[in-house]
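Progress note, project year one: complex with adenosine-5'-triphosphate.
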Amino acid sequence: MFYLAAAAIVAGMIRVRHLSHSFGPHQALKDVTFSLEKGDFVFLSGPSGAGKTTLLRILYASLPIQRGEVNVADMNLNRLDSSRVPLLRRQVGVVFQDFKILPLRTVEENIALPLDLRGLAPKHIERRVRAVSRALGLEGHIKLRCGDLSGGEQQRVAIARAFVVNPKVLLADEPTGNLDPELSLRLMELFKQFQAYGATVIFATHSRELMNRHPGAYVMRLEDGAITYANWPGAGVHRPAQTWAEPLARKPASDMERGA
Amino acid sequence: MSRVFVRLARRGCSDLALNARASMGAVFALTLISFLAGIFFMTLATLDRQLGIARAETVFQVYWKAGTDLDQVRSAWEEYLHLPGFVSVKTYTPEQAMNELGTRLGRGGANMETLFPFLSGGGPLPATALVALIPQGQDPEKWLEETSVYFRSQPGVSRVASTPLRDELGRAWKKVSRYVIWPSFAFMTLILGLTAGNTLRLSVLARAHEIEILRLAGAYNWHIRLPFIVSGVVMGGAGGILGLLLLYFLHTQISDVLNFPPLLLRIYFPPPHMCAALVLAPAATAALSGMLAVRGY
Ligand SMILES: Nc1ncnc2c1ncn2[C@@H]1O[C@H](COP(=O)(O)OP(=O)(O)OP(=O)(O)O)[C@@H](O)[C@H]1O
Ligand SMILES: [Mg+2]
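Model obtained:
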């Protein structure tokens, strides 16, 4: 197919222990604990307002850690100096729920942005951008201003920008929210491909259809800031009956709704 | 590294084009500010030159009786060129004085005699000469007295006035000017800079979203600042230069408006250091504010 994820990705992993986060009186995350190894793929589900975006924001250091411990891509975020935050963000590809693309810039410029910041050679950047935009079906729009694109196209630009740097860790916040089911499934294949090359992927979604299509995948459900379901041993579930440390049996994703 | 630098600098310029309306608004504001500061500087420079001009020389105004034979007057003017300590002489025949007055009154050089028929036949205005001389000898008082007598003794001369007052003022001005010129210059430059800085800060605020995106994409602080600094320098510099051009145009229009007897007030263009301040102050502070404004994100 196309060359997207480089094979040279080294250990990328995420460790979160007893993470809590409050916005004023409102507790958005409650004692969240889980860990993901290199090459893991997890669906992060949960109702609106459950804390999915909050969790992801902490993982790319866009929110400070109030309580708990977080490690991402071999960096301890508790001790990460603000001057080193860019280093972390260069290891982590993020697809934002609200896209965060530059509407006045072209598709090409938006996708190339992280590569530009790394000072790569124009020829190399062009090749990467072309490969990624072809993979996402954007090759016909490359010279258009992002503000003129449809919602689904803008979302694909946001995905392309996360893919283009070959991240060790991919955090995707509702990356298929604006796409039709068929396109969503195709995109899932791309995320899976990254996983296959060793990237660690967290994929926040509401779509049960998408999760049902990948029955073997890890699933973690957040409700009101706490993990109420997780189907792999590295995750702690905050339930009266279990402590976070108690490993859960691995269950297929389709069990999730029953389990939650 | 240098590749990133060039790229970011170029981005700073293309950002201006992308946010065309906002950047044009900022440049426009900066132009007006620096134009205003320029007018202030021009006033300052004119004051300085006008008050300082008679520092070493004394100007005699010689008025002839109306209707004096012009040949006689002209030969007197010839003589003045050879006086000891001669600096300059400005002369006006009655017609010149009339036309001058006519122009100043806004008649565009219309023939005064058709407007005012009673003026025909020499007119009521006298021939005049303004003679600037450097005082000679040890005793300036004595020299002033003697020279006045010399002018008065010429045939047809009705009145002679000298400018000791202006001379005194000039000397006094020379003493205080350094306490006035530099502080006002610095103060105005400061105002210019602050206003430019604020204007540019607004344009940074308008682009907060963009800054956030750059940060999330792994940009270092200087990645974000550099384009703002570049566009700040470009906008501040452009505003300053446009303001200076406006000032130049204004100066060509008004420099001689008051330059006729008896006012003889020439308006001077600000000296180079003030012109430089008009361009550099907004550019530098715009750059600085671009740098500082980014700090909060
Ligand atoms: N910056 C903030 N200030 C105050 N409250 C916030 C802030 N960010 C999030 N919250 C609150 O924290 C809770 C969790 O929000 P979050 O965005 O993480 O939910 P989510 O699971 O991503 O929801 P959705 O599926 O709708 O995107 C919500 O109740 C939200 O209102
Ligand atoms: Mg969210």
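The mean pLDDT of chain B is 80.
The pocket of adenosine-5'-triphosphate (ligand 1) is lined by residues A 23, 26, 28, 46, 48-54, 97 (CB under 6 Å).
No further modelling is planned for this target in the current period.
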